[in-house]
Design a protein that fits this description.
The complex is a heterodimer.
Chain A (H helix, E strand, L loop, with lengths): L6 E4 L3 H11 L3 E4 L5 H6 L7 E4 L9 E3 L3 E5 L4 H6 L1 H6 L1 H7 L5 H4 L4 H7 L5 H8 L3 E5 L4 E5 H4 E3 L2 E2 L6 E8 L6 E7 L9 E10 L2 E10 L6 E2 L13 H14 L10 H19 L12
Parallel strand pairs in A: 1-3, 2-3
Antiparallel strand pairs in A: 4-5, 5-10, 6-7, 6-10, 8-9, 11-12, 12-13, 13-14
Helix pairs in contact in A: 10-11
Chain B lengths: L4 E7 L2 E7 L5 H8 L18 E4 L2 E4 L12 E3 L1 H6 L4 H9 L9 H14 L5 H7 L11 H18 L1
Parallel strand pairs in B: 1-5
Antiparallel strand pairs in B: 1-2, 3-4, 3-5
The chains are: A alpha+beta, B alpha+beta.
Chain lengths: ~290, ~160
């Protein structure tokens, strides 16, 4: 299908974009890479009166590193993340996850800010933001505010962003030395949205986990930090404990049944991901499926 | 009435100016306004890859790009890649291997395959499959396409040494 008619304004600055958004409110949609918005427009799932194109605001594009955090501009494209030496070295989780986002032609246009603001619950990067304890930087006409990733995602395509606000960047604290990561998703085909996926960060000391953040995606109406992680921290991780954690995980996740998978299958896969994650971050392959007990 | 917007870009190296409605996507602009019908329109929501073109050197979905977003850019279509001879060997390999039947996906396949070979001259079959994973073909079952890309990569490498 073809998109319904809309007006178009190319923002010349962040202030200009914010004024346009303030003027048009809910009638406006922000256009950056367009890789989520354009399908919605073409399918007429979205019918904004005006698009505010922020794609030329080059000040919003790029990765900068400070002593304690990495800041990623909202217009940084997926291909930029994949090509960034800083991301590869400091945030390998984000690099691995980004490689699983759609396909090369889409990664060439899509932006991290657009990905996060779209808030598809099956998308990889929102779950990474939870695992990485990221903060989202949001600009309004007269103020800037910072929102933790855990508060930003509020439902299917729903976020903490108001209609007159712009997501300008993401701040990610530098992981402590020795922090391990795990990323995997199950999908029907390469590049598809995940059936279930897990983006995780972990620290282990002497074989025990001192920190574990399990960011699941495609398991409900938003990405979710699994509370079952708490059970696995500060204790010896035995196969019995893993089984208990999987049982808790199955009760706290509320995945949907759809054409791709049943809720039961998604819970099962989430449990497998937990086992594989623990096997990876603890260097204990026997914890993975088929190896334990 | 929504006003048309003036854009200026190059298409296959030639300067183009036009006035376009904001909702016009790049694929329809190329096909309907410029008559470059090699860019195919399949799903119109970014899934099938038939509309793949180059925008400032990088492959993109023309159905997920507005014509107004291409203002100031350099667009290359299958007509450009074909006429310049850049992919003549790849096109021959597609023919030799029966890597097309109806041909609807072929322009997008060729542009995407060439994108891979420019970035990675000697990809293995898994890498070829991965790079082409966003381009659907409903005829060939893909094996012949992978064969054609692999044999082109091999022939180019041999020519270069």
């Amino acid at each position: 299908m073809k998109a319904a008619a809309f007006s178009y304004a190319r923002a010349t600055s962040i202030a200009d974009a914010l004024q346009l958004l303030a003027r048009h409110g809910d009638d406006a949609k922000v256009l950056s890479g367009g890789q989520s918005l354009m399908p919605a427009l073409n399918l007429r799932l979205a019918r904004p009166a005006i698009l505010v194109d922020i794609g030329r605001l080059s000040e919003l594009r790029g990765v900068t590193v400070a002593s304690d955090k990495v800041t990623i501009g909202a217009l940084t494209r997926h291909v930029d993340l994949l090509g960034s030496r800083e991301i590869a070295e400091m945030l390998p989780l984000l690099r691995e996850a980004t490689a699983q986002v759609a396909h090369p032609a889409i990664r060439n246009r899509g932006t991290i800010g657009g990905n996060l603001a779209h808030a598809d619950p099956a998308s990889e990067l929102p779950a990474c933001m939870l695992a990485l304890d990221a903060t989202l930087v949001i600009r309004g006409l007269d103020r800037e505010r910072r929102v933790a990733a855990t508060d930003f995602f509020q439902g299917i395509y729903a976020t903490a962003l108001a209609a007159d606000e712009l997501l300008t960047g993401i701040e990610i604290p530098l992981p402590a030395p020795g922090t391990r990561h795990f990323f995997h998703e199950y999908a029907r085909r390469s590049g598809d949205y995940a059936l279930v996926g897990l983006a995780a960060m972990a620290r282990a000391d002497n074989g025990r986990l001192s920190d574990l953040r399990l960011g699941y995606f495609a398991v409900g109406d938003r990405p979710q930090l699994a509370r079952a992680a708490a059970r696995l921290v500060g204790v010896d991780v035995t196969p019995e404990l893993v089984a208990e954690a999987k049982a808790e995980l199955a009760t706290e996740l509320d995945p949907a049944t759809d054409q791709q998978a049943t809720a039961a299958m998604r819970r099962h896969l989430a449990g497998l991901l937990l086992e594989n994650c623990l096997a990876t971050v603890l260097d204990r392959p026997e914890l993975a499926r088929g190896q334990s007990s | 009435m929504i006003a048309a917007i003036a854009i200026a870009l190059t298409v296959n190296g030639e300067p183009v100016t036009a006035e376009v409605k904001p909702r016009l996507n790049l694929a329809d602009f190329l096909r309907d306004d410029l008559g470059l019908t090699g860019t195919h329109v399949g799903c119109e929501h970014g899934v099938c890859g038939a509309c793949t073109v180059r925008l400032d050197g990088a492959i993109v979905r023309a159905c997920l790009t507005l014509a107004v977003q291409a203002d100031g850019s350099a667009v290359e279509t299958i007509e450009g890649l074909s006429d310049s001879g850049e992919i003549a060997d790849l096109q021959n390999a597609f023919r030799d291997r029966n890597a097309l039947q109806c041909g609807y996906c072929t322009p997008g396949m060729l542009i995407t395959a060439q994108d891979l070979l420019r970035q990675k001259p000697q990809p293995d079959r898994a890498e070829i499959r991965e790079h082409l994973a966003g381009n659907y073909c409903r005829c060939t079952g893909y094996h012949a396409i992978i064969d054609a890309v692999e044999s082109t990569a091999r022939a180019r490498t041999e020519r270069a040494t």
